[in-house]
Amino acid sequence: MGLPELTFSLEKAAGTVSARMSAGAVALILRDAKDNGVYTIHRESDIPAQLGAANVTAIKRAMIGYINRPSVVYVAVIATATEIATGFAALSAYSYDYLAGPVDISASDATALSGLVKEQRKKRYIGKAVLPATAGDDEGTINFVAAGIKSGATTITAAQYAPRIAGLLAGTPANCSATYAALDELTAITPEADPDTAVDAGKLILVDDGRKIKLGRAVTSKTKLAATDPEMLKKIKLVAAVDLIRYYAITTVEDEYLGKCANTYDNKCILLTALRDYLSALEAQGVIRAGSSGAELDADTTRAYLLEQASGNSSEIARISALSNEELRKEDTGSHVFLQLYGKVLDAMEDFHIILQAQ
Question: Containing H/E element for 268?
């Protein structure tokens, strides 16, 4: 495959990333005795009229969004006694950014859904689940903790309001954060006794500043970072951006490049050029900081692979160990291509330090 075709496909992918980071997709798993299946909702008229009132309300809440409305809401309706995993599997053919469960989701179902999301995120899956009181300690689980939620005379549980939060996050553009997003329909909440401690514990909370009820700091449930984990895994905005960049880079390369050319150094360089153009396009769109991105052949992983292949052959091990990084990148790696992409995803303004100097 020549460079132009792949470059064109990755340019389109960069545009898709930008568009989706302005208006993401939401998925809901709902239980209902009246009508099962998967529905694609773009407007309120698409909502199946036969669904129960609570489920119709959940879908409408997901559609509200924030700065933008979600691009689409996928709804998997399962029977009342059906396992939550069935609804999750029904959504496997769809790509979405945020997921919420049934309006009466149990603690065991929430834990199970968090586990399913965590496992699937090891693959191509990029969904993040908004779940009530579920401390998943994972960037794919958003632990929504709220009580005493009221809209006028109506009391709303955290599970019933989770679709609203999923839609709000999907409607937050890449250059913004959902932190302090106003929830104008709410009239009361039970405040957290110690909001800072709650946020540090990976809880997405609601706050009342006396003027408006708002979302707290937009954090994931990730609290324990391994030595190689970046701090950004704790922020919903940054995780969402990395998810989309990774997803469209990988799937485009797989669709347009995998198996279509010999694994030579020249062809690897063509791939790198296309990926660098992809990242540069994201820089131009303000998703990644200008001048921070790049794509390289991963010399360290290449060396580890070649040493594993040479196991037991002392002379070959010595040869590989003596190679420079540039020499390693030109070695035959069979069907494997070891790539390293990098770039600084831009955060939003959240923390202000203002000093008023009186004259």
Answer: helix 265-284
What integer pLDDT is reported at residue 232 of this predicted model? 84
C-alpha 244/C-alpha 263 separation (Å) is: 26
Q: Is 190 helix (H, G, I), strand (E, B) or coil?
A: coil
Greater confidence, 6 or 72? Answer: 72
Of residues 247, 246, 245, 222, the one with CA closest to residue 233: 222
d(CA 127, CA 283): 24
Domains annotated for the chain, with CATH where assigned, are 23-172+179-215 (3.40.50), 231-342 (no CATH)
Instruction: Compute the distance between CA of residue 175 and CA of residue 344 in angstroms, rounded to an integer.
Output: 13
Q: What does the DSSP 8-state code read for residue 197?
A: H
In degrees and rounded to multiples of 5, residue 240 shows phi and psi of -60, -40
What does the angle CA 65 – CA 69 – CA 70 come to, to the nearest 5 degrees?
90
Neighbours of 353 (CB within 10 A): 4
- Residue 2 pLDDT greater than 50, yes or no: no
In whole angstroms, give the CA distance from residue 227 to residue 302: 22
Can you tell me the distance from the alpha carbon of 51 to that of 36, in angstroms, rounded to the nearest whole number? 9
**Residue 129: both structure tokens together:** 């689940």
> Would you give the DSSP letter of residue 151?
E
Phi-psi region of 181 (alpha: psi -120 to 50; beta: other; left: phi over 0): beta
Q: Of 217, 243, 214, 70, which is closest to residue 140 (Cα–Cα)?
A: 243
Q: What pTM value is reported for the model?
A: 0.84
Is residue 50 a contact partner of residue 97, using CB atoms and an 8 Å limit? Answer: no
